[in-house]
Amino acid sequence: MKIIGGDGMPIEVLLVEDSPGDVRLTQEAFRDANSSIHLSVASDGVEAMAFLKHTGAHANSPRPDLILLDLNLPKMDGREVLAHIKENDELKTIPTVILTTSDAESDIVKSYQLQANCYLTKPVQLDAFEALVKSINDFWLTKAKLPQQRQTV
Amino acid sequence: MKPIFPTTLLLVEDSPGDVRLTQEAFREANQAVRLHVAWDGAEAMAFLNRQGANINAPRPDLILLDLNLPKMDGRQVLAQIKEDANLKTIPTVILTTSVAEADIDKSYRLQANCYLNKPVELEAFEALVKSINDFWLTRVKLPQQRPVG
Questions:
Q1: Which of A15, A53, A121, B52 has the smallest count of CB within 10 Å of its CB?
Q2: Is B14 a residue whose pLDDT tops 70?
Q3: Helix, strand, coil shares of chain A as percentages rounded to 5?
Q4: Would you state the pLDDT for residue B4?
């Protein structure tokens, strides 16, 4: 079984999140769960799109294997980022997981309409947050088959 | 945290052995799962569109879709689900023996929610079903809204 990252290449995860506390917790939880993850952070929607399109300061950014996307973001909203990803032929195959505090039904439905790959709510409790990050690692980075193709820059 | 209401799953699978194993593994993993089976792609679409004998078919919370199916291919079923404004919000998980990169890429391109490879080993198959239950039916927020009518 071919596992992403199993060939010595790190698993590239892009976290799009504006809360420094949540970024820190996610980094620490992934470090505990899987040492072959390389986590990049974009702190708003515009930076996320620059990272994905290799523009500006992100000319050498890696193509993520998985994107974790918050919905409420400065500059460009997470829903808009999601729509851009899923409308783009190059980017649409990257699994994009919504990770947000919102459990509003309208946000859940809208995200699936925009073809989010799945929708997760951020728990407030620290233990539950760590367990959620571990479950993302166990399911998406261990069980699921992700597209292997990397763009040659 | 277990779902209180029954969770409706549609399994689209033509192999009787795989259907049986999936039913048994879900029975072990989660009593609240109601698993419906469509044996080919045409039957899957009739179930989802409530045609013919499927007039009272429930809307699935999650679809498990094999790729290689009689009558209508899984790729075509996936494309029809994701082109339908009403059906596209149902998370659709590809569950197939194919590990071909072309199938993986094509499935994500057609907006499969995720792609899983069916293991041959029985224990690994049961573990995979358990992980589908643990992740998709426990962690993930699925759309609750059912269209009226």
A1: B52
A2: yes
A3: 40, 15, 45
A4: 57
| Candidates B113, B117, B131; nearest CB to A118 | B113
ipTM: 0.91
pLDDT, one tens digit per residue, over B44-98 is: 999 999 999 999 999 999 999 999 999 999 999 999 999 999 999 999 999 999 9
C-alpha A64 chain-centroid distance? 8
Residue A20, burial from CB neighbour count under 10 angstroms (0-12, 13-18, 19+): exposed
How far is B45 from chain A, CA to nearest CA, in Å?
A: 19
Q: pLDDT band at residue A29, thresholds of 50, 70 and 90?
A: very high
pLDDT at B148 over 60: no
Q: Tokens at residue A110, please?
A: 């809208």
Are A115 and B117 inside 8 Å of each other by CB?
Answer: no
The pLDDT, as a whole number, for residue A35 is: 86
Instruction: Name residue B41's beta-bridge partners.
Output: none
Separation between Cα atoms, residue A90 and residue B119, nearest integer Å: 29
CB contact under 8 A, B101 and A149: yes
Q: Is the pLDDT of residue A3 over 60?
A: no
Residues of A in contact with B86 (CB under 8 A): none
Q: How far is CA A40 from CA A50, A116, A135, A145, in A?
A: 13, 20, 19, 21
- Look at A108 and B142 and tell me if their CB atoms are within 8 Å: yes
Mark yes or no for CB contact A112/B105 under 8 Å: no
Residue from A98, A103, A117, A122 to probe the interface with B (highest B Cβ count within 10 Å): A117
Closest CA to B91 of B78, B103, B100: B78
Contact A150/B at CB under 8 A? no
Question: Model-level pTM?
Answer: 0.92
Residues of A (53-92) whose Cβ lies below 8 Å from B: 86, 92
